[in-house]
Amino acid sequence: MNKNDLSPASFIGVEGNGIISFGSGQPDLPPPDQVYKMLPHYRDFKYGLIQGMQSLRKALAEQYPDSGSEDFVVTNGASEALDLSLRVIAAMENGKSNKVLLAEPYYYSYPHLIRFSGLEPVYLKTSQGRIDLDDFRRKVNDCKAIIINSPSNPTGRVESIGTLKEIEKISSEHGVFVISDEVYKELIYVRENYLLSGPHVVTINSFSKTYAMCGFRVGYLWSLDADFVQRVIAIKTHASMNTNILGQEMALEATRVPRQFIADQLKIWESRRDLLFQGLQSLDLDIWKPEGAFYVLPKIDNPLDFVWNMYSQHQVITYLGDWFGAPGRVRFSYALDVEKIEEGLARIKKYLSR
Amino acid sequence: MNKNDLSPASFIGVEGNGIISFGSGQPDLPPPDQVYKMLPHYRDFKYGLIQGMQSLRKALAEQYPDSGSEDFVVTNGASEALDLSLRVIAAMENGKSNKVLLAEPYYYSYPHLIRFSGLEPVYLKTSQGRIDLDDFRRKVNDCKAIIINSPSNPTGRVESIGTLKEIEKISSEHGVFVISDEVYKELIYVRENYLLSGPHVVTINSFSKTYAMCGFRVGYLWSLDADFVQRVIAIKTHASMNTNILGQEMALEATRVPRQFIADQLKIWESRRDLLFQGLQSLDLDIWKPEGAFYVLPKIDNPLDFVWNMYSQHQVITYLGDWFGAPGRVRFSYALDVEKIEEGLARIKKYLSR
Q1: Mutant choice from A28, A246, A248, A250 vs B, greatest count of B C-beta within 10 A
Q2: How far apart are CA A331 and CA A308, in angstroms?
Q3: Which of B13, B46, B79 sits opposite A241 (nearest CB)?
């Protein structure tokens, strides 16, 4: 680790030694016990269907309106679902430029994945962490696709239903693909999730955040455009084949876990959100109230010094906003227990008031 | 299934009902018991290192000369290792065209993966299923990379050590990347494997064929070019993150299985090879003797009718050679037990002598 490379990926696996991590974008509490229950007697070993296990896709179809198992592709996490979707869009012709619109701040993988597929990121203004609809209207018609991420990593903000409906409608009118990354859809504190839909929408989700299954890498995409689904499968057939069969069995078990698990988790997340938000607010930081996911993105003076010094001198991990298109800000995850949040806040307070 | 789409992927999961499958490119016998042994008490769930579990990479480094754990990236099967390598090569500048050379017949994913990454496949002549070195010398200098697959899927042929050394040397002189897909390196009947190496070589391997772990999708690449490895990780960080943590634990167990397992498997493969090869030869088919892997690729008159009729009327699955750049031929896998091979041969004999 050095001050010139404080990328989120470089912090993976850094722990212990009194380190308090506000870095990691993954739940700290374990998955429901049930997801492990088939492991002791598991003996399968052969290739699975490239599209994903039929039983898992059937279970997913019950969670999405007007859907069948054929509308899903199970992937190596939401990451692969995003990558495959962008590769498919890059190869399709819809009479548009090669630009993909995304709100800034953004999840840090988006611009990379867009460029890997030969497309070009174009940034959408936000106000208080939410999409500026006027800017969207100005830019959308020139774009091939738009990525929506509500609730947002790294802002923790949730777009209004009015905004989402407007994006859904205008994108459809202009023939622009919408990639809706809804991996935090079960972690919203302010309302129910609004599911963007239509044949121009590809919805991305995963078992990572809702069921704390990050390491198992099981995600999926949902699309009502049968041709789009076939194009995704055509790439996955060669680029990775089926998603790990055991991960898919565990994900199937997760779909059978009572909804009460999610409700209980949400209460935990909300109380941590309150603690961290109020703690940072009391330090007089410019900050948006998180409405979903488990991040908060305050303004911090000299953020590079802050992130580096907090890590190297005070054993507190935070992520530099620059990685998320948010210079001048620092991302804090609250995926850690209350005692650690309190201890971390104390160290930050001491540092900022030095 | 219909006569217009007899792709290998379309046959995945087709079984039962008296079907004899010479199709599937995966072992039918299970992995060593040991790979399942950690499952009952497994409770991890967090992200792993994107490059792969340190302990697994360390175990791999012991199998490769002059290597450390930093020279490996663990991937979602050999497929992802190939895809990532090609994406990296496509983005690198070595003063060459965008062409990738590959022997024809080829593993059917190669041309697709080459095109997905924006590169262009160029085909290398073979004679009796082995690379024509004169054709290689004519074409290599204009290419950015070459893919070598010895033992070969679908031919079952093994290149001579002389050929491999010549390719290694000339590619190096011309600054051409070599992607050496050695997933069948432990399944050679005629000699030890020859490991292509040098800083311009990326070696691809997996646990799928050697340990019958296809469904778990654990592969890896090995490269002594540190910059190349970092470029692979830079893509994987966004495109899929870590490989399934449980699959990696199982792969680590596989590295600890006594070599006798591999020797015993090889004996089984060899006796099946003899049975199928001699059986097809006795039908007077034009055929190359398989020296590795578990495929044989005879000439068959009207191959499309053969594949379709054998499947739809006689419940025997085979793969059309066209998918592998081998028109006029049909691929038979011998990943099935002796009784089934005999029954399948009987049905084929009956069909061909009708």
Answers
A1: A246
A2: 13
A3: B79
ipTM over 0.95: yes
Cβ atoms A348, A311 nearer than 8 A: no
pLDDT in tens, A274-325: 999 999 999 999 999 999 999 999 999 999 999 999 999 999 999 999 999 9
DSSP string, B206-248: ESTTTSS-GGG-EEEEEES-HHHHHHHHHHHHHHT-S--HHHH
All residues of chain A having their beta carbon less than 8 Å from the beta carbon of residue B112 are: 234, 237-238
CATH 3.90.1150.10 is held by the domain A8-30+260-352: yes
Cα A91 to Cα B233: distance, rounded to the nearest angstrom? 24
Which chain B residue shows the shortest CA-CA distance from A8?
Answer: B237
Q: What is the pLDDT of residue B100?
A: 98
Minimum-distance CB partner of A76 among B49, B76, B87: B76
Measured CA to CA in angstroms, residue B214 lies from A318, B77, B217 at distances of 39, 8, 6
CATH topology of domain A35-255: Aspartate Aminotransferase; domain 2 (3.40.640)
**C-alpha–C-alpha distance, residues B73 and B242, integer Å:** 10
Across the interface, of B26, B39, B238, the residue whose CB is closest to A113 is B238
DSSP state of B299: B
Query: How far away is chain A from the Cα of B285, in angstroms, using its nearest Cα?
Result: 31
User: Could you say which of A36, A44, A237 has the minimum Cβ distance to residue B9?
Assistant: A237
Q: For chain B, how are helix, strand and coil distributed in percent, rounded to 5? A: 40, 15, 40
**H or E element, residue A157:** none
Query: What residue ranges do the domains of chain A occupy?
Result: 8-30+260-352, 35-255
- Which residue blocks in chain B are alpha helix, DSSP H? 54-61, 77-91, 109-116, 133-139, 161-174, 226-239, 245-255, 260-281, 303-314, 338-352
Tokens, residue B203? 């070696």
Q: Is B248 on the interface with A (CB under 8 A)?
A: no
Q: Each residue of A129-169: pLDDT tens digit?
A: 999 999 999 999 999 999 999 999 999 999 999 999 999 99
CATH number for the region B34-255 comes to: 3.40.640.10
Whether chain A has a CB inside 8 Å of the CB on B181: the answer is no
Q: Is any Cβ of chain A less than 8 angstroms from the Cβ of B191?
A: no
CA separation (Å) from A291 to A160, A195, B71, B249?
11, 16, 43, 37
A214–chain B Cβ distance below 8 A for any pair: yes
Q: Considering chain B, what is the average pLDDT of its residues?
A: 96
